[in-house]
Amino acid sequence: MIVASHLTKRYPGGHEALRDLSFEIAAGDMAAICGHSGAGKTTLLKLLCAVERPTSGSLVVNGQNLPALKKRALPYLRRNLGVVFQDQKLLFDRSALDNARLPLDIIGLPSREAQRRARAALDKVGLLAREKANPIALSGGEQQRLAIARAVVNRPSLLLADEPTANLDPEAARQVLELFYAFNQVRVTIVIATHAPQTIPHPTRLLTLDHGRLNA
Amino acid sequence: MKTWLRQHRAALGHALQRLWRAPLNTLLSLVVIGIAMTLPAAGYILLDNVQKLGVNASGVQEISVFMRTDASDEMTGAVEAALAERFPGQWRFVSRAVALESLKTREGMADIVESLPQNPLPDAFVVEPQASAPKALESLKDSLAALPGVAHVQLDSAWIQRFDALLRLGRLIVSLLAAVFAVGLVAITFNTIRLQVLARADEIEVARLIGATDAFIRRPFYYSGILQGGLGGLAAGALILLGLAALQAPVERLASLYGSDFALTGLALRHFALLPLIGAFLGWIGAQISVSLALRQMEQGNA
């Protein structure tokens, strides 16, 4: 599912966020990327969803070598990808349901079908009762689950999450992680960046980053 | 194809919603655009009416065809036949005798005319052709001068030429005005669309991250610009109709005082349709520039 080889990311100014990473994540894995803050977890996730490009090395996701992709091709790549951002990036000018259906509107699904699938996604994360609520009225855990609903509404085969439990109380964090586990059970490949790998349920793959290098 | 249509419909819907949600802003923009388009359009209407007024003023376009004094009756007859064929009902014959009589009636001329050994005046035709363009009149003049027995053709066109030059100048001024206001309209759209884009920075960022194409992100803003310009054009049409309605009665009264049946002409229906089209086109251009610039700035801001 993901094959990285000699992946390096250097930012302008010389800071080397990732150095010579090589790893594989198989389809169906529940992978945790862990490390102290500043170790390069977020950078690696940004490379995985092609928000940033590596300085050198190759990174094949879903059979496509990301560094070689043209900018025009990126939107279509991202459509097969579910991403839960660190700051969630929910839109506060519309209801939870409208947030969840945004990816479907983008691909131009008929409104009825989008509505139906967004409801199904909300149902999966236990937010169907709050579909009309504005995200700002949701609790931290509910917002995170809404972000997950939006990430999975496209039925992606790969789900990326950046510190999805960072600002949640233990109970909410447990619910969120269980959701990821549930998606993993139906063969969705999960990659979670976290500073607390012990909380990840049943990880099949553990990558530990230390100052941009991979610790075996 | 179906998806494409659906996405366009959705973008149009969003754009309409945006206009609808900020009614005051929308109204103000439309009024500004409307006024910007009204001024040049009103200029065109004014020129149109002035031109009509000029054409209406009778006796303006006269061609006098003077025969040679030794022209035979056949020659005069040939000219008469030619005129009768080409300008039916638009000419009259002034014989040399009639011309002399009318000269006699002028103050102080009677004695002079009496003292002449013979009538020095030629037979003449006065033509009032319907063609009004100075060029057409010039070529008419030339073709008349070529007829046998014609000594001289005089075109009383100085006034027409001045009038025409004035109209030309007016048209140029109106065109410049239109260009200036077109730039203004693009600038207005540029600004409103820019504000819209910046206000939606979050949405644009998220949409990008979850797989929106550039076209998807731009589309609603294009529709906003097109709608704003188009509706502004309609507003301009409405303003013009109101203005014409208000002026119609006073103008007719003034005309009747001068014994004329002149009435204001407004815009033809196709010209009314042109206003929103021009507005929409300019709005689209403004939106295009604005979105490109704002998106580029946002990208640089994020990097």
List the helices and strands and how they pair.
The complex is a heterodimer of chains A (216) and B (303).
Chain A: E1 2-10, E2 16-25, E3 30-34, H1 41-48, E4 56-61, E5 64-65, H2 74-78, E6 81-84, H3 96-107, H4 111-124, H5 140-152, E7 158-162, H6 170-185, E8 189-194, E9 205-210, E10 213-215
Parallel strand pairs in A: 3-8, 3-9, 6-7, 7-8
Antiparallel strand pairs in A: 1-2, 1-4, 4-5, 9-10
Chain B: H1 2-21, H2 23-56, E1 63-67, H3 73-86, E2 91-94, H4 96-104, H5 110-115, E3 124-127, H6 134-145, E4 150-155, H7 158-199, H8 201-209, H9 214-257, H10 269-302
Antiparallel strand pairs in B: 1-3, 1-4, 2-3
Helix pairs in contact in B: 1-9, 2-7, 2-9, 7-9, 7-10, 9-10
Features:
heterodimer; A: 216 residues; alpha/beta; six-stranded mixed sheet; four-stranded antiparallel sheet; 10 strands; globular; B: 303 residues; Alpha-Beta Plaits
Order of helix and strand elements from N to C terminus of chain A: EEEHEEHEHHHEHEEE
Total DSSP helices of chain B: 10
Mean pLDDT of chain A: 90
Main pleated sheet of chain A: 6 strands, mixed
The proportion of residues in beta strands of chain B is 5-15%
Query: Which structural class should the secondary elements of chain A be placed in?
Result: alpha/beta
* Total number of helices of chain A: 6
> How are the strands ordered across the major sheet of chain A?
6-7-8-3-9-10
Oligomer: heterodimer
CATH architecture descriptor name of the largest domain in chain A: 3-Layer(aba) Sandwich
